[in-house]
Every structure is written in C-alpha cells, then in structure tokens.
Amino acid sequence: MSRSIDYGNLMHEAMRGLIRQVLTDVADHGLPGAHHFFITFDTMHPDVELADWLSDRFPEDMTIVMQHWFDDLQVGEDGFAVTLNFGDNPERMFIPFDAIRTFVDPSVEFGLRFETQGDDEDEDDEVDAEVESLSDKRTAPKAKSKSEDAPKKDADVVSLDSFRKS
C-alpha cells in the first residue's frame, strides 16, 4: 500500500489554525486599527450553536461581521463563541472552525475560502483551502502603482510532464 501526503487536509488545518490564532489575539487584545472580519459559516454544521430564529432565517449559511460591536469572544481548540448584536438583540453563538466557509479581513484585502469538492460518490468529500487576496468595494481605493497601469497578460500554463525524465 503506498502512502501519500494529504496536502489538502494539511492546508485545511493550517488555515483554520491561522484563523484560531488571529481570533485568539483579538480576544486578548481587541481588533487593531481598521481590521474587521466577515466570517461565513455553515449553519447546518452539527456543532454550530445559534438562536433558533437565526438558524430559521439563515438555513444554509450566514455571514457575521466582527467590527464595531461584539462581546465576550472566547476561542477554543475547535471553534469560537461570541456575542453579536442583531438590531439591539444580543445573541450568543458558537462557530466550529470546521463550519467556516470564508474568512475575510477587507481592511488588508485578505481572505480564506474553504471549498468542499466530491470526486466520486464512494469517496469522502475532499476539503481544500484556498488563499485569496480579496478586495471589498466598501474600502477606500488604493493608489495604483505604475505596474498596475500596464496591460495585464494572461497566465502561462506549464505542464510538469515536460520536466519529467522518461
């Protein structure tokens, strides 16, 4: 039986560890500067704890914003709990890291997206993490550098087969 390195799950764990570390720092020291987060999660995940009226309103996924008002952020090994304000109605929720679909900090154009893709019906879903540079239209436009004014060139695709020895 041959063994292989499961890069998809390794990336998955590393990116969730990054989110855990960022949220732990925010819990200890607060949000620095203009940083804020948009976190989209699967409301159907079995370990999500959410008020019934919120799960009824968001039956598949929900995006929360951690910016101006959030309270009692507690970060654990498997997820985080936070109290958020919904129209002067504070609600406590627990979100497992495995339930997160996207984590975005538009203040620095940083984002993570976790996708589930099935290869075969007989195989388990494979989870891949993608790191993206995301911009949010609500952030102030940035000055362009001279290289950004140049026309964009299509990416070159190189096959690794051309480098393999026969």
What does this molecule look like?
This protein is of the alpha+beta class and about 170 residues long. It contains three helices and eight strands. The strands form two sheets. Strands 2-1-6-7-8 form a five-stranded antiparallel β-sheet. Strands 3-4-5 form a three-stranded antiparallel β-sheet.
Largest sheet: 5 strands, antiparallel
Q: How would you write the strand order of the largest sheet?
A: 2-1-6-7-8
Shape: globular
User: What value does the Rg take, in angstroms?
Assistant: 20 Å
Note poorly predicted spans.
Answer: 118-164
How much helical structure, as a percent, in the residues?
Answer: 10-25%
What structural class should be given to the helix and strand makeup? alpha+beta
What is the succession of H and E elements?
HEHEEEEEEEH
- Terminal Cα span: 24 Å
The tally of helices reads: 3
In short:
The protein has 166 residues and is α+β, with helices and mostly antiparallel strands.
Write the topology of this structure.
Elements: H1 7-29, E1 37-42, H2 52-57, E2 61-66, E3 70-75, E4 79-85, E5 90-96, E6 100-105, E7 110-117, E8 126-132, H3 146-149
Antiparallel strand pairs: 1-2, 1-6, 3-4, 4-5, 6-7, 7-8
Looking at this protein, list some descriptive labels:
166 residues; five-stranded antiparallel beta sheet; globular; single chain; three-stranded antiparallel beta sheet; disordered C terminus; alpha+beta; 3 helices
